[in-house]
Amino acid sequence: MKSIFALALLGLVAAVTPSFAQDNTKVLGSYTVTGTETDGAKYDGEGTLAVTMDKSGALELKWDGGKYVGIGQVEGSKLFVGSVADGKVVIMVMDIKPDGSLEGKWWRRTDAGTKGTEVWKKK
Fold first, then answer.
1. Among 97, 110, 109, which residue's Cα sits nearest to residue 118?
2. Which domain of life does the protein's organism represent (predicted)?
3. 56: domain range?
4. What is the pLDDT of residues 24-58, one digit of tens each?
């Protein structure tokens, strides 16, 4: 019985993994980033972001040459990201636009503000 369950689980994982990876391919590439901090203050200037795919099919995100890193997953027209910035956990929810750009909101643990935003434009 255990081996049947294990085979069924393996088959499910194999069937689902390619679809995640396929959805993730639509956001691969390099971006220019603008945005606001959680208190609403504008970023000092444009930043860079590289989005690549890990061998697991998850997205790897590196802002400003790896100063900040995260992991993401596309679901429909949304990108969900978890990362760490300044030693605090960050979550992001980004809308994938038809032109390939993304924009959305982000929140950092223990920050009082909720005005964090980012806009990513493909290079």
1. 97
2. Bacteria
3. 2-122
4. 999 999 999 999 999 999 999 999 999 999 988 89
